[in-house]
């Protein structure tokens, strides 16, 4: 049984792989995967937009339909585990996850993930994964991105986008196949072991300001439990950002 189609549709350029799948969510089959070798309007959390040079970034999205909308919030965690496993398999780089969905290699961000639910004739979701592949350290320095890096910088290897995409799809598919029968707890266990946020003093940033507390646990829906001022609060990824007390991690 497979959830994701291993035959990845490739484009030389798209505005955004997530946008493409959202526009075509109910005409394409569930499990459809899209790879763009260049994006002109890639999107991250909180509406951030970036452009990339061909071959320097992996831009991959896949469509889930139907999907339980209640599980959409957990999808970034699943995608983080799948992407980390794929990176380690191909270039041997050790990795961690900064809650909720930033993949870290050498304590710097190498990957971002954006999962979006779609309302329509049936429930659907799009999962987008962007990995920095071939940028050099000077690229991030010139753009004042001290907490970002690439697999080339960290491992010395520049992966072929399609090769990494195929490995991510295979890893994600394995998790999606087992999740309905095993539940989310095994995935949560894997995520907790890889999550660099847990146990740390963190700053929780919202539109109203910031609070300081200790990250305690990951909940079943993927939200973060933080102890602030002696009280435990649930932080959801769409509502706040979390930073380390003395830096990004």
- For the record, give the distance between the C-alpha atoms at the N and C termini, rounded to a whole number: 38 Å
- Strand proportion, as a percent range, falls in 25-35%
What portion of residues is helical?
A: 25-40%
Examine the coordinates and then state which fold CATH places here, giving the name of the CATH topology of the largest domain. Answer: BirA Bifunctional Protein, domain 2
* SSE topology string: EHEEEEHEEEEHHHHEEEEE
What's the alpha carbon Rg, rounded to whole Å? 17 Å
| SSE-based structural type | alpha+beta
* Low-confidence runs: none
Q: What's the overall average pLDDT, rounded?
A: 89
Number of strands: 14
CATH class of the largest domain: Alpha Beta
Second rung of CATH, namely the architecture of the largest domain: 2-Layer Sandwich
Total tally of structural domains: 2
Strand order of the largest sheet: 1-2-5-9-8-7-6
Q: Rough shape?
A: globular
Helix-strand blueprint:
Elements: E1 9-11, H1 17-23, E2 33-36, E3 42-43, E4 49-50, E5 57-64, H2 75-91, E6 96-98, E7 102-105, E8 108-118, E9 124-132, H3 137-142, H4 151-155, H5 161-182, H6 185-194, E10 201-206, E11 209-218, E12 224-228, E13 231-235, E14 241-244
Parallel strand pairs: 1-2
Antiparallel strand pairs: 2-5, 3-4, 5-9, 6-7, 7-8, 8-9, 10-11, 10-14, 11-12, 12-13
Concise summary:
It is an enzyme of class 6 (ligase). The chain contains six helices and 14 strands.
What does this structure look like?
The protein is α+β, with helices and mostly antiparallel strands. The protein folds into two domains: 9-193, BirA Bifunctional Protein, domain 2; 197-244, Roll (SH3 type barrels), CATH 2.30.30. It has helices at 17-23, 75-91, 137-142, 151-155, 161-182, 185-194; strands spanning 9-11, 33-36, 42-43, 49-50, 57-64, 96-98, 102-105, 108-118, 124-132, 201-206, 209-218, 224-228, 231-235, 241-244. The strands form three sheets. The protein has a seven-stranded mixed beta sheet, with helices on both faces. A five-stranded antiparallel beta sheet has the order 13-12-11-10-14. Helix 1 links the parallel strand 1 (9-11) and strand 2. Helix 2 crosses helix 5 (161-182) and helix 2 (75-91) crosses helix 6. The longest helix has 22 residues, at 161-182. One of its GO terms (cellular component) is cytoplasm. One of its GO terms (biological process) is protein lipoylation. This is biotin--[biotin carboxyl-carrier protein] ligase. It holds the Pfam family BPL_C.
